[in-house]
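Second attempt. The first submission of Helix-turn-helix domain-containing protein had a stray character pasted in from the spreadsheet, which I only caught after the job came back as garbage. Lesson logged: always re-copy from the clean sequence file. Corrected sequence (223 aa) follows.
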Amino acid sequence: MRKPYGFEIEPEVREWLDNLSDGDFKRVDEVAGLLAEKGAELGGPWSDHLEGPVWELRVRLRDVAARVTYWCTPGRTIVLLTVFRKTKQHDQRQIDRAVRAQKICERDHHGPVAEIYEAGVMTGYHTRWVRPEPSVEDPERIMIREALAFGKALYDRRSALGLTVAELAERAGMTEDEIECIEEGGTAPTIALLRHLAAALNADVRLTSGHDLGSVWFEPHAA
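This time the job returned cleanly.
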């Protein structure tokens, strides 16, 4: 098993993390945990390539579609560069800002950083982020993991069908933002919602015990 990626953070992201509510911080941390495990292989629905070595991490915080830009260094370190709120489908200004931050980071920051950031403590400039050890039994984290599993299942089935978000939204009688919110892990799964989406996806809902990715999926109807 490969060692997880480590994190370093720029001041903008560090300040943003420090100002999150406890619940929002847990949601960011859970998605960051997936990124630490997969790195550049994470893919959708939580990661998307922007430009050059810069990617974005997608986190849904209630009604806010948050985006954290990052790059994976050759030394298995992920640097979180900038953060912004998605307000349109393609924001070139934010992409350019993240690309500039990456170039400065690559040019000026070499070797390990001595400072460490933990929730509530900010020191130094370019710092290492030590993620907390989450409680396995934390009910709030369990709900977050269930929502992430739901989002991944929906994304995978939509992708398998070759549907755009707009096309699935039309099929399901929902808005594009509602579909995106589910895929980004911002919506708790309910039996009624799962069945409704399964009908739009020509599939049946399958559930297993547990709360991690793979605990829910949409199984295609038999031909």
